[in-house]
Predict the structure.
Amino acid sequence: MKNDQDFPTLPDEALALDRRHLLRLWLTGSILLACPPGLAMAAGAAGASKAGGTLRIGADADPIGLDPTIVTAFSSNDFTALLYSGLLRWNAKMEVEPDLALSYDMPDEKTYVFKLRQGVKFHNGKDFTAEDVKYTFDRILDPATASRLRTQYASIDSVTIVDPFTVRFALKNRDAAFLSYLASNPDGAIVPKEVEELVTKPVGTGPFVFESYQPNQQFTLARNPHYFEDGLPNLEKVVFKFYKDQATLSSALRSKTIDMTWLKDPKVAALMARASKDFISAPGQTSRTFPVWLNMKAPPLNDVRVRRALSLATDRQACLQTVLGGSGKVGAMIPESQVGGYDGVGEMPYYKPDPAAAKALLAEAGFPDGIDLGDYIVVAANPLDVACAQILQQQWQAAGIKVKIVPMETAPLLNQWSSGTWATLLSVALSWTPDSDAILQYLNSQSKFGKAMGITDEGLDRMMTEARAETDNTKRAAKNLAIQKHIADQAYVLQVYQYPLRWEIWWNYVEGYVPLAANIRSFVRNTSLKG
Amino acid sequence: MSDAAIFSLAGAEPAPRRRLRPTAGRLLLGLGLVMLTILVLITLLAPLVAPFDPSATSPQSLEGSSSQHWLGTDAIGRDVLSRIIVGGRTTLFITFTAVSLALLAGLVLGLLSGYVGGWVDEVIMRILDVIFAFPVFLLAIAVVAALGPTVPNLILTIAIVYTPAMSRVVRGPVLSVKKWDHVEAARSIGMSEWRIVTRHVLPMVVSPIVVATSLTLAQTIFTVTALSFLGLGPPPPDPNWGGMLADARQFMELAPLTVVGPAAAIVFATLTFIVLANGLREVLDVGSER
Amino acid sequence: MKRVILVRSMWMAAILLGVSFVSFMLMRALPGDFVLAAAGAQMLQPEVLEAMRRDLGLNQPLIEQYLSWLGAVLKGDFGTSFVTHQPVLHELWPRFLVTLELALIAAFIALVMGVSTGLVSARLRGAADWIVRLYNGFILAVPNFVVGTLIVLLVGLYFPELAVLSYTPFLEDPLGNIAGMILPAFALALAISVTISENTRAAVLEVSNQDFVMVARAKGLLPRTILWNYLMRNALTPIITVTGLQVATLLGGSIVIETIFAIPGMGQYLFDSITSRDYPVIQAIVLVAAACVVFINTLADIAYATADARVEA
């Protein structure tokens, strides 16, 4: 097993792992979910296709920088995911599996020792060793780098090189999120030691090599001939073509100018998938929630009765039906693709629509004639959000709650949200994050957003800390569910629905592709084109 | 640019056509007035004419034409026809108000600049050049982002955008009228400047201004709907034509009527003012080509 | 004449300075900056945001930022895009060419349509004149984004496999590139063709009334010879001027058509840059677009001034 060219492909190799660690690795992932139908279809047909060819993917946003340690924009993830690899990665069932690591050992609850793959080369020809792993994490943790990842990896105490292919991570405390972050891209991506300007000249160990980039037009990646998985990737090239406009994007897919894409509006995607049977459409797991954030620093929303009234006045199922055409689920804080994610049907306090009860609560809070909550700020550029806001406005009106919808440009909206200066209600959708803890942190009294919203709930903070420390997934899921129930009971936020962030759709000559809830297209490495 | 030059250039036309002009012109003007009446009536009576509440949503989305919903329903189940009717209100209100403001500003600046002349003219025209050279959408986005996407802000933006053009329309004729003999004569007998302007200059420039205003109305409808199309229009749930068109684009193959309806409304409104402008131009005998 | 041009050029520079200053201050005065726009809904620590601002020089006083920007621009350096980390000019140039190509193709279509309808209307008079003028009036009433949307709709309904919405880089496939430009250029050309048509008509009518044409006619020259030798040559100045003005406006104003047809030109670039608050790019586009408008305006003014001088003399 010295020569990387002889490495078997992953499933077999995974079997070679030490049984105990293997088990642990599998379990560390999120809860098991059935494959969506499209996924099964895609995986089943993989045999007959040949290597080579160019896959053209329609993308809706340009990357903003390609250095995984310092990128902050979601739009960069699509590219870093194909350029870089991490120690671990997500498999098709959203479970953690080994990638650059071969296995890991836990001598104690707070120490992880990773055995690394040998013979892996970076795109610049240099060998991948433990030095690069240490460099990557030291760089993240160095305050001078100002990496957004520093807080996510705050539990890391030290990274030590045991030998050129063994690394030890010592943590300050038990941390269930640690492995999730390592498996996510770009969060866990390993960068080569002391290579400058990764922002524009990315160098990773991923299946594809950066070739060229014409902003707003296309981003081209070429096959990495030295990629460590035998025979992969199949494709010679991957070309991302940029279409800012959703109508243009779907039209480009129909005319086969692109082979695959993802659509933002589930209704459009569902209708499109029905238009031709040669489309494979994979809604994927729900990974995005649509919340209404409340400013609880001042009256009237500092009164839990007003917040509960708002929740009771909301018919989440109706929003779901009208805005998403039913392609989604009722939402809570954590989307279903995460540990302890809400399934959309379970009991949640104040979720059953009841305008009369809402009115009664308002009267009790001192607003017998209804209440005017003023501006409800939404992202102007997101038609789904604006549509849902209009439906909410009508539903609330029926319970005597008046709001005025204010669509706003993204930058000023984020400015108000993060600084806590918005009036009463504001909506920004939450996208997939590597670990459920990152989502809960929005409501932590100590976090930037928690402070901006005016939450002071030490009990809730403690529940979150305990959940993150729980490395047993079943127990953690139960804790996360309890947290969500508490949030719904206090109505700290009004979660409306959850839906797939990426409703991916592609022509059936694209084979072997599997969509992931993880906001990336890492399975392009297994993809091939038929005929 | 020199509108005066364009005026003089386009103004001279062969004599035989003059006889034909008034009849055809009156015909056009009449048609324009009828169209305007229809537009204004529908707009004023919108809540009575609209068959449904334009904001009422329902799960019956993207349905085609039916006896109930003549133009079908939009992506969140609202009646398209009602939204077009009520949407005309917002669009036309913004258009009229913005053009009135621009006209007012244009009259003041154009008269000042054309009549007083000299350095006042230079300074005013150069400042207007700066505004004129400024991309419309940058200005619109800036105003909306800074002050919010409200109707008054939209009116303000569009008024600013059209002020340079209106000023030029006023300034051109004023420049030539100023040199006319009876103005010179009035000045020589010691008439006050104010009286000269109101008695002798203004009446002379009314015709081109009227024509230019109706053309500007047509152009403003274009700008208002284009801004709404780009998401810079008045906020929901109030419908507006440009926003409806933009929203419908995503689903246009599935529900073509949701695109065709607002498109037809925009064309009708614009056409009204163009017909009106052409009719006025013929009747008032203005050779302007804006 | 030289003096006029000199004074005009100085005014042009002053106007551009004014435009750049106003747009600089306007964009910075807007709530939300690049750092926030890039971060999106993610939870970023204040120190991460501060570090990004420091790296981009956004923490300096505004007037200092403007002056250093201006100083660099005078030396030909437009800075680096915050989003793509590439030199702004390097990014802007291909987009400028795309928009220029679109505008030129549109101008060509508009010229062909406008001059022919204008000639028909001026030469044939009577019914033909009225039909052309009614047609022009109607065309003027259809905004270009409505035409564009309807084109995309019809193609989507009846020719779903036709790739109207894909931009092909010129160097990759010149024919495909031009083919992709024709529909959007057509949408833009319609309204311009009306202006050209009306100006052609007016110019031809005016010129045909002037002495030298009368003389030519009296000398018994063929109508066709008169049309091409005298009429068109003399009517050409206003037609070209009008077309030039329209192209100048297109350079800064084809944003909606570019969005509808997914053409990576300057309009779309400006819109995206404003959304992401990519200040150096916004500044450069505004400057280029304003320069086009001001330059062609000035040319038109000078052309008219020369013509007027000739007429008066």
Remarks:
- Chain A touches chain B at residues 246-247, 250, 265, 267-268, 271, 318, 321-323, 325, 380-381, 383, 386-387, 389-391, 393-394, 404-409, 411-412 (CB under 8 Å).
- Residues 1-49 of chain A have pLDDT under 50 and may be disordered.
- DSSP finds 18 helices and 21 strands in chain A.
- The first strand of chain A starts at residue 54 and ends at 59.
